[in-house]
Amino acid sequence: MKLLRQRYGGGPGQLLATIACFAIAGAAVVGWSQRHKDFEAVLIWFAAAIVLHDLVLLPLYSLLDRVTVARLPAQAAAYVRVPALICGLVLLAVFPTVLGFGAHTAQHASGVTEHGYLARWLALTGVVFLISGLAYVISGRRSESASVAE
Hints:
Helices cover about 85% and strands about 0% of the residues. The chain has helices at about 1-10, 10-35, 35-70, 75-100, 105-110, 115-150. α4 (about 75-100) runs antiparallel to α6 (about 115-150).
């Protein structure tokens, strides 16, 4: 066990989880490679996602983070970063639905129209930021009361 930690850097559970993740990813690649048209589409999508993220999104959210950290107190930055990350990941996962892409396809396939998702995502974003703001206010009051008690 000690040798495993020295060589690998983690415990056996982490090693098994890593192996399982690689096995799942490998199975996905094998499945895609069996259908050449799908495999090409996945590779094109993956390359476009890398380029879009590295050249557009990474500089954009890095700039937004620097502006946020520069204008807010140090303790408040986390209370903006976390809800922004949560809402950004939700948007990333469901953006075609939120932005109405594929509405015709969804209606044709299911008979249900896609509407209201943008309003729901905006409401979710508002609630998450509201909860984060309340947590910031509560933590500020706790630190004030702790410093007064000392």
